Amino acid sequence: MKRNIVIATLTAAALATGGTVAAFAAGDDDATATQRQANTSAQVAADRDDDRDDDASEDRTAVSGSDVTAAEAIAAALKHTPGTALSADLEDDGADAWEVSVVKGDGTEYDVRIAPDSGKVLGAQRDTDDDKDAEDRAELAAVKGAHTDAREAALAAAAQGTVTEVGLDDDHGTVAWTADTVKNGKHGEWKVALDSGKVTQDHDDDA
User: Fold this and answer.
1) Kind and range of the H or E run holding 86
2) With b meaning 16 or more CB within 10 Å and e meaning fewer, what string describes 8-36?
3) Nearest Cα to 90, choosing from 161, 202, 166?
4) Cα-Cα-Cα-Cα dihedral sign, residues 152, 153, 158, 160
5) Of 148, 153, 170, which is closest to residue 88 (Cα–Cα)?
6) How far apart are CA 39 and CA 30, in angstroms?
């Protein structure tokens, strides 16, 4: 009889211990999942910060190699190739040149390269990619009826810093100019309204 009681007691103790171990194991799994989620969130934030640092570094490199502003580059490109300017980009590889995209009256598009030190036209090449999607067509139509053109958008954004790029963005059907700037070593992104030329900070990439 005593032997049976002892066996029963030992069995109960073993079950209790196993339950405790299982509980600890479950707790460990929960903690691991929570830690894994925290690590993922931290990595996403770090990657976003790295992207911003890269943008700022590229902008500083471009600015240091250019004496010609975005507005001046656009004006020079349009003088050489009359039409509607859609964008201007100061290339990141040592400010090799401004590249201005211009659409002529017949619909043909040209990439006009402008020297960053003198504003001289280095060349113009026709864009042979005729596969324009609906968004491209909508942007072009919006620009043609706008009160603010690319040059004016660049001038407006210049109040926020040195403009390194200006272009178009269709945000849920609303087309606006966008501009990248650098000021005191910091990268900035802005939207410029097509109708009023009002400049607001672009928060789309902050999420």
Assistant:
1) strand 84-90
2) eeeeeeeeeeeeeeeeeeeeeeeeeeeee
3) 166
4) positive
5) 153
6) 14
Q: What angle do CA 115, 120, 123 make, to 5 degrees?
A: 80
CA dihedral 123, 128, 134, 138 (to 10 degrees): 30
Amino acid at 145: G
DSSP structure class, residue 184: T
18-42: average pLDDT: 50
Q: Could you identify the residue written with the tokens 């403009």?
A: 163
> pLDDT by residue (tens digit) across 63-82?
555 789 999 999 999 999 99
Q: Which residue has the higher pLDDT, 2 or 115?
A: 115
- Give the H or E element holding residue 146: none
Quick check: pTM over 0.85?
no
Q: What is the pLDDT of residues 84-118, one digit of tens each?
A: 999 999 875 455 899 999 999 888 999 999 999 99
- Distance, in Å, from the CA atom of 188 to the CA atom of 186, rounded to the nearest integer, reads 7
pLDDT > 60? residue 174: yes
Say which residue the tokens 């194991």 belong to.
Answer: 25
